[in-house]
Specification:
heterodimer; A: 600 residues; mainly alpha; MetI-like fold; two-stranded antiparallel ribbon; globular; B: 354 residues; D-Maltodextrin-Binding Protein, domain 2; 2 domains; 13 helices
Amino acid sequence: MVDVIKKKAKEVQESLFSSVGSSVLTIGTSYLVLNFFRGMFGFVMSSDKDWLAVLNNMQLYMVQAYPESDFIRVWISVGLTFVFSGVSIGLWRSDDRSNISVMFDRFYKLGLGVLFFTIVAPTFTSYMGNDGYVITEEVFSRSSRIGMLIPVLLITVGFFLLKNRKINFSFNNSDAVFLYLSIPIALIWIIELPTIQLDQNKDRIIPDPLMPIANTTKVPWTVIFVLFLLSYFIGIYFKEVKRLKNIMSISWFLLPLLIFSWIFKKPQIEMAEVLTGDIPIFLIFFAVGLGTVLLINNPIVKKYYSIYIGVVIVATIAGVFISIPMLAKACLLLLGLFVTVVPAVSTSQQGKKSLIIIWAVALVTLTFLLRGGASETGIVVPGSSIFGGFSLTWLLAIFGTYVSFPLGVLLALGRNSKLPIVRIICTGIIELVRSVPYITWLFFASVTLAVFLPAGVEFNLIVRVLMVTAFFSGAYFAENIRGGLQSIPKGQYEAADAIGMSPFQKIGLIVLPQALRAVIPTLVSSAITAFKDSSLVTIIGLFDFLTIGKTVIDNQSVPVNFVGHQRENLIFVAVVYWIFTFTLSRRSMKIEKRLGLGER
Amino acid sequence: MSKKAIVSLLVLSMIAVACGGTDDAVEEVVEEVAMTTLEEVQARGFLKCGVSTGATGFTEVADDGSYSGFDVDYCYAVAAAVFGDYSKVEFKQLTAAERFTALSAGEIDVLIRNTTWTQSRDTELGNDFGPTTYYDGQQLMGRKSDGLSDSSTLADVDGLRVCTNAGTTTEKNITEGAGLVGATIELVTVEAFSEAIDKFIAGECDIVTTDGSGLVGRRAVNDALNDWAIFPASPISKEPLGPTYRSNDSQWADIVNWTVYATIIADEYGVTRANIDSFDYDAAPEMGRLFGKNDGELQTKMGLSADAYYNVVKQIGNYDEIFSRNLNPLGLYREGSYNDYWNNGGLVYAPPAR
């Protein structure tokens, strides 16, 4: 025991007090941090703060005006995401096991932290009253401090003893996620929160009565947790099926599209349009694709195949500008991609068969999603968009990354191209987009873009924002990826050429996997930036998560008066952003570790 | 496959990605064949009304996402006049910077966003202003403990720190006003008024200034009636707030204007939501004409249904009801203010309906 303490003391001395300079730094910084914490604690606890301004507006924060009668759609969206996560965690379950003492150590450290902050927390806090005099009030009395210290101390000591006992029990790291998540799920059934109640005169009852969390919140979360767990077991059961992993990867790409075009949106489908529009277009394109695959080995077809590709490409470009159904435009694009890969894959009978299946599935998915996306929504909200609050932040973050990432890859490849025109265009786009601030682009989307579009075409503001966001973060992605591309030795390209790979195979199988792997940290930080930057849409009047906290609640005087409670809401918003970005960066660290980045 | 094909494909995909985002959002194409605003609104089936991103009492969003407020009620009123159903409104929240661009770009049909009627906005921006619905004026608020009272003047702020939001007429007015009386002030500018008041509460500035309605509202909700003083008694600027619409569409202008006038005339005659059906219209032929009780050709000539303004008052209420519902809880009352009825010394006045 003495040795341990000596060792620790030496560690502390070495890392914090190794010289006069570092001692001064250590003491100075700890003084600042401690005071910051004490000020923060006093701020949070002082009686002029109304944290119910946050709690009471949770619905507004999450979905803004989404009607309560359709909340089941929101829950299904959240639930589906959790089910997919469960299956994925199961499928990619790591075999790393940790000893139980690691978990005890984690709780022990947490306990130490709580203990420390309980001791240093201030007893009094002061704020300026309406009359201009400073009011000092007790926020953490001696009795409540002792009442908190004793149990925390006992728990911490308990975990300390447990962690030092060599218990021969280990658990899978993936399983631990569920164990940790079960704690909040259990808590929502137990804890009671202050809730706003109005009396007959519509005045707020003070103090706010404690109420258990409503069933409309805790039942869905519990169901989702159970489904999450079940899907995890399903994932583990099918762990060995390799094809399922591929399907899962594609599903992750399609899931947000499905959520936003069908589940969240509640499209009003007109059967007549489906029968006269979608189905014929689907059949025509399926037939064309089928014919391409079947006739590819015919010598005449082979001879004129490049002309065929050219025709499809011209038709796609033309399709963008002429007024044909959206579905036809998208199908033309898909056909363009399809016909370029057909010659490489359809060398065997097996390859042809899977090509036909892929073509059918891709077309069906596209038709299905586009029908949902293009139809009128059945959700009635007073504002101009069914997205608001966190759902809007999420939409901007996901689609911002979705669209901008492939665009970034294309721009990066284009910038590295040997063809001067392509290089100039790509460089031009990247430099133009990067040299203008994001806020300027947002104003461009909000007030100028409408003027540039052809007469009669009108895009929703959110779509315009998505368009500029795609280009903006696409340009940044492109520069990051270009860095990765430059790290690939020339020998790799030459080796690929030597074994007779087509340019597509070279890029897709040799260059991109290595280049992307090299830049994962910067890609993740770009994605985090995109997520956080989505809050800038507040300046063009879109109601994202931050705007709700900053502007909307601060002006709410009915049904409950929350005017002037902006700071509580801003702290809440900051904490939520922190939780998401922190999780994201931890995940990416795990991925880097798994890919052996920086080690090989 | 040739390199050229690959390259063209890349370019193409870029175009496609750019257009890919458009998948689910091409709104129904609005035919721009010289439709009047009324025709456009009627064809669309709902009114697009520009409101504030948040102004206590004027535009508020409740915890379930529903809208309320003085400006919001006038949006509802216009929808009730056009469609006979007040709920046919789509609200578009606009920041101060975008409001006029949004209006001129046709993204909204009418802007009711506590917008001050000024000469330059009226003449240069291609807008026209409707009748003023709320007469406001800039005032200052300070602590009584600093020796300020409701009868203080601008000269008393000499040497004090004044918080206000930047880039508005408010900032210009206070600098101009203080300069005229020879008071030196330290101007602290922030982005939004809520920040200014937060700084004031935290003691980072001694005075906060904006439109009087905002100050009275904040003083009431902060429970500081006895601690904070609002002065000078006669505001340092004129801020008439009212609806705004695009110029050169007098039919639409008339519809919006007379919606406001209808609420004022109904108030004059004491017609409320409650007594509108039991009111004796024979004794007040003007009300009868306005509500289409006789022939209603005044309304049908405007392109509306005969009972358009009956629907407004039936569904939203008269001026006094709209005012008291939204602004009385904030401590803003009509009595003695410019917003009182013209017979009582206020400025709220409507031309006769005949």
